[in-house]
Specification:
By secondary structure, the chain is of the alpha+beta class. It has a single domain, classed as SH3 type barrels (Roll). It contains three helices and five strands. It has a five-stranded antiparallel sheet, with no helix packed on it. A hairpin with a 5-residue loop joins strand 2 and strand 3. The chain is extended, with a radius of gyration of 20 Å. The two termini are 23 Å apart. It holds the Pfam family LSM. This is Sm domain-containing protein. It comes from Petromyces alliaceus. One of its GO terms (cellular component) is NatC complex.
C-alpha cells in the first residue's frame, strides 16, 4: 500500500468505532478521531476494559473451590467479567498499541459481505 492509499484508508476510518489493544492488556473502544506520525491514536466516547487482577482471579477460584469441592481443582473453570469504565476522550500512545480492530455493526458486516460477493 503506498502512502496515498494509506492516508485514504486512515481517513475512511475517521468516525468509525475502533478497538485498540494496549501493551498493558487494557482495551479501549471508542470513536476514531485522528492519528499522528508517532502513531498515537485519539478516540472519543471511549470505554476502557481491563482484565481482572490476579488477586481477584485467585479469590474467585477459592470461592469456586469451596462451592464445588467434588471437582478436582485443576479442572475447574472460573469465569469473570472484565471491568469497564467510561473515560471519554483519550490518547493512546502509539508505542503501546499492540493491535487495532474495526468494530462493525451487524448491518455493516452484511453490507461488506454483499460487496465481496458482487
Amino acid at each position: 500500500m503506498d502512502e496515498n492509499q494509506a492516508a485514504q484508508y486512515l481517513e475512511s476510518l475517521i468516525g468509525q468505532t475502533l478497538r485498540v489493544h494496549a501493551s498493558d492488556t487494557r482495551i479501549f473502544v471508542g470513536t476514531f478521531k485522528c492519528t499522528d506520525s508517532a502513531r498515537n491514536i485519539i478516540l472519543a466516547s471511549t470505554y476502557e476494559y481491563r482484565f481482572p487482577s490476579p488477586s481477584a482471579v485467585q479469590d474467585a477460584a477459592t470461592v469456586a473451590d469451596n462451592q464445588e469441592s467434588g471437582i478436582a481443582a485443576e479442572f475447574q473453570n472460573v469465569k469473570m467479567n472484565m471491568t469497564s469504565r467510561f473515560i471519554g476522550l483519550v490518547v493512546v500512545p502509539g508505542q503501546h498499541i499492540i493491535k487495532i480492530e474495526l468494530e462493525e455493526t451487524p448491518q455493516q458486516s452484511r453490507v461488506r459481505e454483499s460487496l465481496k460477493k458482487s
